[in-house]
Write a structure and sequence with these properties.
Largest sheet: 9 strands, mixed
Strand content: 35-45%
Number of helices: 18
Distance between the termini: 57 Å
Amino acid sequence: MSGAHGSLEKQGVLRTPPHGALRRGGVLTPSGGTTEHLSAALIISYVTSTSDGVQVWRVQLACVLVSRQGAPLPGLGEGSVPGSGGPGRPPPRDLDKPLRLTMAEVLASGWFGGDFYPYCSPKTELLEQRWARGTMDLLDLPSRNGKWDGRVENQPALQGGGQAWFPSPSVLFQICYGTPGPQSVFFRNGAARGPELILERCDLQLEANGRDHHTADLCQERLVVRRGQPFYLTLHFEGRGYEAGVDRLTFSAVTGPAPSEEAGTKARFPLADAVEEGSWTASVLDQQDSVLSLQLSTPASAPVGLYRLSLEASTGYQGSSFVLGHFTLLFNAWCPADAVYLDAEEERREYVLTQQGFIYQGSAKFIKSVPWNFGQFEDGILDICLMLLDVNPKFLTDAGRDCSRRSSPVYVGRVVSGMVNCNDDQGVLLGRWDNNYGDGVSPMFWIGSVDILRRWKNYGCQHVKYGQCWVFAAVACTVLRCLGIPTRVVTNYNSAHDQNSNLLIEYFRNEFGELESNKSEMIWNFHCWVESWMTRPDLEPGYEGWQALDPTPQEKSEGTYCCGPVPVRAIKEGDLSTKYDAPFVFAEVNADVVDWIRQDDGSMHKSVNRSLVVGLKISTKCVGRDEREDITHTYKYPEGSAEERQAFTRANHLNKLAEQEEAKEETGVAMRIRVGQSMSMGSDFDVFAHINNDTPESRECRLLLCARTVSYNGVLGPECGTEVLPDLTLEPFSEKSIPLHILYEKYSDFLTESNLIKVQGLLIEPAANSYLLAQRDLYLENPEIKIRILGEPKQNRKLVAEVSLRNPLKVPLLGCSFTVEGAGLTKEQKSVEVPDPVEPGELVKVRVDLLPMDRGLHKLVVNFECDKLKAVKGYRNVIIGPP
């Protein structure tokens, strides 16, 4: 203020300090060389207009006090002024009267005002005029009883959150120099408070929180934390720091479009002294000047999703609100209080953090591992998973209730199960099983979930074509792992699709063993679903742990194409009343299969088929190893055991119990299908019907052998080999092995991308009117994809993968292409087309550039396609070192 400062400097009282040189408790040195203390206070709140339309700052309090030892402030009575640091006087006898101080009186007072705070208010013409006149008015203060006793609660203007003229000079004051913008000193119970607390910025500590919460891959540009575990943030205030006895900080965290405290989607919580378990809390970790380090905790039962975090800072009766930022809250398998808690660290890493794995296909006799890139932490995937929740029908019907129920992994798992397929909603994938995929992508082509989910988002939440069971399961696994729920893909071989819940799959065949019609109830060569780990507070104790969820649209559950979650233990115990969909999953692993043979006269005869057992080799990837783990024992007791009978009795599985009794009585003739050597794509090979006659009588039989291509879901294609022996004599206690030749030229044009051939033998004994059926699914192995890594694998350094394959066929391969992807190795899928035909026996080789972004173990997954070979898969583990 040029006028004010100039007049004081001429008197040798005040020399203007350099901007920013003032500090709390500082001393100003007058130009005359004697030490004199200065305190000043300004309250400036709003702009008003004078009668001539000139805008000026309204000054609510302006007071300058300069101390000269021993001189009391004029007009005040005897006593000490609080905070004066020396002799002074109490406030005047009548506080309702304005107090006018001339500059001469102030300069002669000798009153010392104590500490001061170097915050800034604007230089204004009004202030300069008042300084020039040598007066500062302490204006009138209204009150309820005509007098004000210094208590805020008796001052209506302050109670209403507004500001009022303040008469007390016994305050801590503020040195004010010309930074634009209003700053205030607040008073409470007659004592001065610092200016309003202004937040400059909030540091969400992305790196530290990402490391502590196992979300480092997600915390590149946003805060992602797991519930029930503290996270950290740092508040940087402008000018002055937080004061515990002066300022009040209140936090607000909200999620969803209609947050409410009753629904658990809104929380307000003050800064507290300590963390309170199981609730939203904030506490101070450290304070350095104007920098405040905080720890925030969330309940382990809070709804997951995107939150907005806000701060309300109040000093006295005025405050400001600030949006600190947004954060995403996930389920927490590391928190014992969370419903998804897993106590083994290696399992948490496998089922939550690992971005690659295997899905098991093929057949029960030839299990084929297919690599898959789950990629749950890849760019954009978390946002897509949250979007998937926000377009589910339950959210669209009642968003508030849906967001509230996202606290439960049971609910979220069920929603994801329905949203991965698109049968009822804007789900991700459209299923198709008829081998006609020209207007989309063949289910066998996919090698990861990332491309599928990104396509769904880019299509405006319109379905992606096409998926089959392992694709549905893999995408569900990606979404659930991304949200923090421990999840794994499982494969069940000889999986039953039981529509009417009678635990019975019936096939009707003509006298040649051929199916009379394609039924929707059938046995799939394999079927995939997912298991997720969680507690089940909605069920009786003992049903926590792995829960089966099946996102493949097969049957409706409560009006929606979804399935589960149902406790795996409930399936094992035969407890079919357990939520959700226990009968359907129980049938998938336990249904009985009956084959009926219709004779010429129309009569039906039941055939014996011991080769087809439902629910075999239930498989998932091992924890921490690229190997298969057989988890059949978690779904089924050992066959023939007392526990199995108890489970079947509990499930009212009368067919299975009767079948076991029939099996005990059976003796005599048996037949099974055997293979002579490994079967690879492009080769000719033999299979054998191996027949045993364990009776002392000779048997006159007829044998029908047939091979047909088949899809993995049991749908048969054309024949590719037949053998009929109308007169087959089985000598007493003898064995016979009858070959069936299967030629590449017969199956090459009809083989589906599943690479499966079903061989069936029907042995008929007319004299006994008996029928014996044997079946086997053959998997033809694709050629091996070889992958070489060229260069030293280091983070953020270019790397080259050399990918090659040798043509195993006797004909050229046309339209060849390689597609590669890998979480942490590529930002997106990369495809390389081979322009020239690949001759028989020739090696085709391409190179792909990689740029590893993350250290550690990664999988590079490869798919090869051409006109004659489909869905050839390969992978290579790559360990990326530090740069």
